[in-house]
Amino acid sequence: MRVLIVEDERHLADTVRRGLVNEGFVVDVAHDGVSGLSAASESSYDAILLDLMLPLMNGYDVLKELRQRRIWTPVLMLTAKDGEYDQTDAFDLGADDYLTKPFSFLVLVARIRALIRRGAPERPVVLILGTLSVDPVTRRVRRDGTDISLTAREYGLLHYLMRRHDEVVSKAEILDNVWDSAFEGGDNVVEVYIGYLRRKIDVPFGVRSLATVRGMGYQLSAGQISEPARAPRPHR
């Protein structure tokens, strides 16, 4: 099993390299984004450990370029940054896992083995559901060829629902995957943002794609054309 480490902290990179070699991996190391991108593009790896803050080219750009080149090697982001949007951005660009420094080496090895077991199936860069499309690289959202402007939170919610399309997802699942783990508010915030999203992706287009499943959660599907609103009957 061959792994590429792209990490500018040389001591950490060498420590991880030696540990992985002892676990039976073949390991290459790059210390900047440009070298890492070159190595990942020119050689075949079973997994890539990619730091976020790199010289010459940051990890986001390396990952974005790899996916644009249709290189689907599983990528595990290694970074000291643990903000909500850092993780969201990494997954949006095509990361497969995310580990925050400092980390347990045993956990790292387990994550790498899990990525390698799953393999690197090709995945579409643009998510499409009916007439709705989401481009995770550019964050462009469109319905029927019309651009839709979303806030960061609305986008995160839509992206999660697109990945789980046709499934019923609960408020708890949405909170766990779209909101920060430190969020202390109630789950009513999910209902509020579902309403915001409907008014942007459905209502203007006469479509019903984001449904509430009573007592269970929400479901995003290809949708159907809404019935035109009936004019009120005149009072006699």
Question: Explain this structure to me?
Answer:
This protein has 236 residues and is an alpha/beta fold. It folds into two domains: 2-118, Response regulator (Rossmann fold, 3-Layer(aba) Sandwich); 127-225, Arc Repressor Mutant, subunit A. The protein has eight helices and twelve strands. It has helices at residues 10-22, 33-42, 59-68, 84-93, 105-118, 152-163, 171-178, 188-201, and strands at residues 2-6, 26-30, 47-51, 75-79, 97-100, 127-129, 132-135, 140-143, 146-148, 168-169, 207-213, 217-225. The strands form three sheets. It has a five-stranded parallel beta sheet, sandwiched between helices. It is elongated and about 55 Å long. Mean pLDDT is 84; it is low at 227-236.
